[in-house]
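Re: zinc ion structure - here you go.
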Amino acid sequence: MTGRLVADPASHCPDQAARTVVAAAFAAISSRYVLARHQIAAAILDGNGGIHLGLHVDAMVGRAAVCAEAGALSAARLATSAPLIAVAAVRYPKPTETAQARIVPPCGLCRELLLDHAPALRAVVHDGPEARLAPMADLLPHKYVGTKWPTAPTRS
Ligand SMILES: [Zn+2]
């Protein structure tokens, strides 16, 4: 907890599922923010109403960093095999920035990762002043398709 009064971006979400994941991600990063170490948290909503959180873990070597969405996906898959329906990531402001947390779209790597594991997932993105849920497939129209997996996850 930083002690700053930072605005919750969930107020920008007219959709209930979007508001739920944004509020959860905002609460998580508000309590775990550490400058240059943990700046973003993500929340994934599953089809049973469960919320799964992830925390961005930065690293001295940039490519060793782990995105919050990857952490949330891992937590979700540990907890349930239910479909994953919505994801949001919220970036907490640095002390030198305006006290407004921001909804951030998934990076390209996370778009690939999330689509591999949750093809029906929608992500909260900002379009002007309001946020909306966008199908992940719309955010990555020409996704990489490899040959090492069957088309759907199996437990074999
Ligand atoms: Zn990412």
